[in-house]
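HUMAN: Spend a minute on the protein record below and explain its fold to me.
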Amino acid sequence: MADRQDVVGVDSEPVAVRLYADQHPATRLVNADISSLPLRDASVDAVLCVTVLCHRAIKDPEATVAELVRVMRPGGVICLLEPGIRRLRRAHDRAVHVERRFAVADMRTLLERNGCQVLRSSGAYSFLVPAAALKAVLERGRSTSDLEGQGGALGTALGGAASVERLWLRRHGIPAGLSAWAVATKSS
């Protein structure tokens, strides 16, 4: 994105801001609460919010989306990507402080209630849902992360499945997936 526009990165965690700055020195970084952004009304063209609304630190996802929409210019674009399938809370969620998951319809509603016109919404990583559901049952009560040990042939196969799904998503939607996403524009 930085090749096309000025980018502002926001995170409430100072360590995350510092680590990102090391890798992306041209990006303007702000240590702030996403629910109260230190940006002017209608000052940005696009917002990308990835796995933030799900976090336990976000008390009111709808109010947070309202804040994101506040800083967008009319006609601006917003993209939300969050963990999907509300009933699929599992050990990984507890380990990474995921408070909530979203249905595709939830993503649409969050945007529409805040004056946006949804262009597209869908589930993603649908091929992982059966395995995640099984893991949820097997891990009941534990707190472990999926981020450990994901290499080898399984990682290659999953990458291939993700590539096929992305081709499908270019023209079609999926009703549910391990992630839910939506892209919308801000009405004038």
